Amino acid sequence: xxxxTQARMVLHVAAAYGIDPTHSDRATDLLxxxxxxxxxxxxxxxxxxxxxxxxxxxxxGQPSATGRTFLRLSVKLAQMAGVGAAKRMVAKLVPxxxxxxxxxxxxxxxxxxxxxxxxxYRQPPWVxxxxxxxxx
Length: 136
Prior knowledge:
Blueprint: H1 2-16, H2 25-33, H3 40-51, H4 65-93, H5 97-121
């Protein structure tokens, strides 16, 4: 539910800054803003693999860009699973701690995402908009 709410927030902020929230680049922006990918290029490649436009069969053979992207995504998902396991363990040890910790962590993550989103879309209209992850 948090990811859905945060994605909607990003799309609303994009629309508020005059950026088309329905454009396919918003999916790339979301992956970069959520720090699933560091740069837009790898986010686009991952979306292409997920949509079946890119070959996923070569992921384990030669070290291709797709393989490196898959590996990075796997590591990120493992890290996210580890954080979730740590939260569950703390919640079991201290009754009510899960609610307090979850609320604090989710609030901080959403505020940070809102800040990054505003920085991305806030550029003046006369300056060409960089794609997410470029120049960083």
